[in-house]
């Protein structure tokens, strides 16, 4: 693709040498670098890399010569021989892509050309097109030979919740495993040791990239759980293109950057949770997370200088070219930047991982919780370290673990307990203690009193998980009476003291139970410390955290008594959110509404959805979110911010309702409308602007 020299700040100083070639030696003190585009073939089908048959792949030469996808007549299954037809259903249309010439590292004309176009992956059909292929294939899913295009579409469009889809996908992926053994026995041993999620590629692109392209966070999690590397970086420029016309110029694209370019914060968070490095994203685009340095650069020349001086010279970010750099400027929203910051500031070391991978109990997934909780870094670190200590002391006598989560409502106590259930993969039971008044309501009546055979929810849960690791959350524990607290003293101290109230004679083993007590009893103590010491930094807590812990425990003595308090192993404080964290919460809430509005319109009476096909965006997200965050109240926590975002949702609905007097029709199902949230600083409010309506883009 030839590019004009318009807009290139270095063009004025370029000279021609005697042979007519451009000479950049007289440019600025930062000599221009050549960009290796990887396009050694001048013309070939859009996005198609050179097709080299992998050793041992079993791909035929005829199959490797296929050029793409032909979606004509998809969905018609009247062929007499579907088996012969299956591999020919997916054919790409021969197109000529405009060759990408070598250029200087910063080319303004190229940046402008690529900055707003939609990214596509080669050979991926729309959902309707894929369903048409599946219908034509019928039950002939076990293709005799590997079919790259069809398998790529399976990754993008399959339903990860359906076991049949997973089995079918794994069979197809298995055909792409290449083995190094020469003898048949070596070949089979090598094949069994390979992983269809980690070790497979399609046209040289690891299949994790196709999972990311599906925009399905559960699918990405499946790949990562099965061993795919979250720090993959590979050349996918030949499989990635824009507006179906030209190859997207990028080499060695990290998979986390790919997720960011697609505008998928949940997938970015998932990759970080599995160990992706934040440092591959240029720091100027993400730090400080509330308003990165890039937003403070006012001129095009300042942006160019920052890119040339700091991005191209950094080992972690040297992969990033001018096009990707400027697209990331727009794609990295506030919640992504916060998660990337969290990856920098809340590190998990190799020693942490070693302790977590205990042969008795693998608790390493719990490290991912730091990306699901906003703020609360001090409490999270204390909790994680305590859990790691538990892995080294699995036989703590017979004493269960008793944790107390303390802090104002709406600041993450219940959410963290639920994340512990999710990541530790253990049974979970929650009990609101405000509604439990007597000991026999909590544990169940003794035999032969009325109702003894029914037990109680807590009693039955402990009996069902006898001797197993599980979690019991007691919410609002400060509202319990003295008789319930006294009844808990012995179970908190020794784990083999309770009998099943439904008539069991032997004692239940509850030594592996993790009791979590959530309370507001320490609100005044926590708020007083926060108001005196804010901001709550790691440096502050390193100096004063121990003394603060003693103060909290003394306060608990006055609320619960010394006997009950002494059985609590760890107190985890939850502080109010800082102003920047409040803005992050606003962005997360707006992001949830964005996903809901993006859903397609449906006129089907059984699945009616009249509000949809809305592309919601923010202009200068940090300004919008700071205005929304003004609604934050410590007493309500995140609920106060959620209510303000609900008001914005109502305003969007009002404008959607008044957009036309006509009823919504099938034509509206094929269009989408731009809605933009803008900060009005003069009025101190967020304004909703309605933009243009355009044909809806289909994934493919």
UniProtKB/TrEMBL annotation:
Xref: Pfam families: AAA_2 (PF07724)
Region span, Disordered: 1-86
Occurrences of domain ATPase AAA-type core (ranges): 402-570
Key words of the record: ATP-binding, Nucleotide-binding
Keyword Nucleotide-binding: yes
Gene Ontology biological process terms in this record: cellular response to heat
GO molecular function, one term: ATP hydrolysis activity
Keyword Cell inner membrane: no
Composition bias type Basic and acidic residues, residue spans: 1-11, 75-85
GO cellular-component term (any): cytoplasm
Gene3D superfamilies, alphabetized: P-loop containing nucleotide triphosphate hydrolases (3.40.50.300)
Annotated Low complexity bias: 18-29
Signal peptide range: none
Protein name per its UniProtKB record: ATPase AAA-type core domain-containing protein
Organism the protein comes from: Arthrobotrys oligospora (strain ATCC 24927 / CBS 115.81 / DSM 1491) (Nematode-trapping fungus)
């Amino acid at each position: 693709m030839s590019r004009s020299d318009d807009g290139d700040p270095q063009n004025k100083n370029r000279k021609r040498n005697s042979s007519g070639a451009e000479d950049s030696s007289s440019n600025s003190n930062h000599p221009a670098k050549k960009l290796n585009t990887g396009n050694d073939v001048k013309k070939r089908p859009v996005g198609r890399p050179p097709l080299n048959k992998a050793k041992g792949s079993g791909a035929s030469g005829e199959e490797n010569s296929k050029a793409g996808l032909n979606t004509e007549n998809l969905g018609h299954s009247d062929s007499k021989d579907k088996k012969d037809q299956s591999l020919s259903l997916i054919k790409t249309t021969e197109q000529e892509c405009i060759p990408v010439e070598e250029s200087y590292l910063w080319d303004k004309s190229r940046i402008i050309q690529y900055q707003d176009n939609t990214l596509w992956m080669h050979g991926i059909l729309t959902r309707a097109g894929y369903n048409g292929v599946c219908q034509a294939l019928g039950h002939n899913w076990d293709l005799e030979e590997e079919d790259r295009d069809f398998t790529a579409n399976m990754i993008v469009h399959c339903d990860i919740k359906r076991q049949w889809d997973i089995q079918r996908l794994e069979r197809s992926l298995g055909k792409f495993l290449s083995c190094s053994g020469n003898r048949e026995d070596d070949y089979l041993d090598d094949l069994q040791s390979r992983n269809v999620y980690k070790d497979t590629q399609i046209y040289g692109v690891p299949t994790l990239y196709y999972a990311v392209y599906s925009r399905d966070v559960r699918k990405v999690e499946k790949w990562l759980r099965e061993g795919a590397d979250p720090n993959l970086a590979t050349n996918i420029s030949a499989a990635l293109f824009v507006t179906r016309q030209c190859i997207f110029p990028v080499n060695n694209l990290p998979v986390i950057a790919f997720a960011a370019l697609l505008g998928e914060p949940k997938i970015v968070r998932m990759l970080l949770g599995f160990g992706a490095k934040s440092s591959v994203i240029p720091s100027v685009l993400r730090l400080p997370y509330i308003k990165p340095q890039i937003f403070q650069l006012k001129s095009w020349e300042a942006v160019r200088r920052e890119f040339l001086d700091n991005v191209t010279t950094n080992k972690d970010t040297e992969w990033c070219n001018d096009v990707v750099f400027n697209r990331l400027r727009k794609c990295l929203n506030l919640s992504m930047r916060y998660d990337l910051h969290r990856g920098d500031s809340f590190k998990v070391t190799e020693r942490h991982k070693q302790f977590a991978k205990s042969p008795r109990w693998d608790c390493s997934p719990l490290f991912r919780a730091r990306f699901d909780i906003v703020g609360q870094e001090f409490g999270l670190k204390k909790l994680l370290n305590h859990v790691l200590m538990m892995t080294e002391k699995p036989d703590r006598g017979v004493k269960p673990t008793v944790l107390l989560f303390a802090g104002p409502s709406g600041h993450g106590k219940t959410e963290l307990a639920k994340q512990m259930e999710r990541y530790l993969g253990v049974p979970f039971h929650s009990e609101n203690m405000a509604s439990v008044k007597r000991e026999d309501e909590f544990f169940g009546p003794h035999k032969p009193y009325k109702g003894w055979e029914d037990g109680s929810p807590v009693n039955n849960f402990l009996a069902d998980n006898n001797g197993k690791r599980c979690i019991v959350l007691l919410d609002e524990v400060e509202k319990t009476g003295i008789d319930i607290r006294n009844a808990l003293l012995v179970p908190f101290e020794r784990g083999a003291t309770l009998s099943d109230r439904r008539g069991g004679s032997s004692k239940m083993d509850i030594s592996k139970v993790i009791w979590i007590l959530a309370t507001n009893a320490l609100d005044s103590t926590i708020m007083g410390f926060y108001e005196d010491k804010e901001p709550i930094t790691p440096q502050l807590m390193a100096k004063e955290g121990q003394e603060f812990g003693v103060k909290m425990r003394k306060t608990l003595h006055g609320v619960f008594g010394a006997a009950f308090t002494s059985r609590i192993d760890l107190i985890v404080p939850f502080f109010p959110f800082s102003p920047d964290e409040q803005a992050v919460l606003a962005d997360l809430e707006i992001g949830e509404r964005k996903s809901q509005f993006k859903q397609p319109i449906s006129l089907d009476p059984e699945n009616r959805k009249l509000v949809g096909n809305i592309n919601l965006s923010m202009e200068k997200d940090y300004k919008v979110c700071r205005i929304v965050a003004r609604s934050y109240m410590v007493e309500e926590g995140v609920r106060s911010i959620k209510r303000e975002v609900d008001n914005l949702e109502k305003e969007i609905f009002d404008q959607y309702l008044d957009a036309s007097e006509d009823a919504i029709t099938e034509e509206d199902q094929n269009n989408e409308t731009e809605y933009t949230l803008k900060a009005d600083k003069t009025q101190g409010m967020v304004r909703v602007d309605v933009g243009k309506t355009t044909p809806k883009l289909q994934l493919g």
